[in-house]
Amino acid sequence: MTPMGWRVASRGLAGAILIGLLGCTTTQQTPASQAAKPPALASTAAGDAAASRPVVGLRRLTESQYRNTIADIFGDDIQVRGRFEQIQRPDQGLVAVGASGSAISAAGFEQYEQMGRGVAAQVLDPAHRTLFLPCAPRDPARADADCARAFFQKIGRYVFRRPLSANELTFYVQVAERATEPTGDFHTGLSLGLSAMLSSPRFLYRMERAEAGARELDAWSKASRLSYLLWNTTPDEALLDASGRGDLDTPQGLAREVDRLLASPRLENGLRAFFTDFMLLDRTQSVAKDPVVYPRFDQLVVKDLSEQTLRTLADLLLVQERPYPEVFTAQRTFLTRRLGVIYDVPVSSPTGWEAYEFDAGDDRAGLLGQAGFLALYSHEGRSSPTLRGKAIREVLLCQPVPPPPGNVDFSGFNDSGSVVLKTARERLNRHNTDPVCAGCHRITDPLGLPLERFDSTGAFRNNENGAKIDVSGTYEGQALEGASGMGLRLSKSRSPTDCVSRRLAEYATGREQEHGLPTAWVAALQERFAADGFRYRALLRDIATSPEFGAAPALPGLKTAAMGTSQGVRQ
Amino acid sequence: MTFAALPRRALPLLAAAAALVGGVGWMAFAKDSPRQPAPDGSYGFLVTGVVPAIYKGTEKGDCPDGRAHSTLEAYLATQTPAERIRLQKPENALELEKKYKVDFVTDDLGHDICRQPEAFDRAPARIAGGRTSFGMDLDGGDSANTCAHGEFQSPTGETGVDNQFYRVVGCTNWWRGAVGGPPGEAGEGWRMRWATGDSRAVVVLRGVDDWRNDDHVEFVLATSKDPAPVGADGKVIAGGSLRMTDNPRWRNSGTGRIRDGVLVTNPMEVAIYMRMGTDSEIRIRHARFRLKILPNGELDGMVAGYQKPREALAKMLAGSVISTDIQLECAALYKAAHVYADGDRDPQTGKCTTLSTAFEFFAKPAYVFEHDGTLIATRQSRTVRTASQ
Question: How far is residue B340's CA from residue B327's CA, in Å, rounded to a whole number?
Answer without folding.
Answer: 22
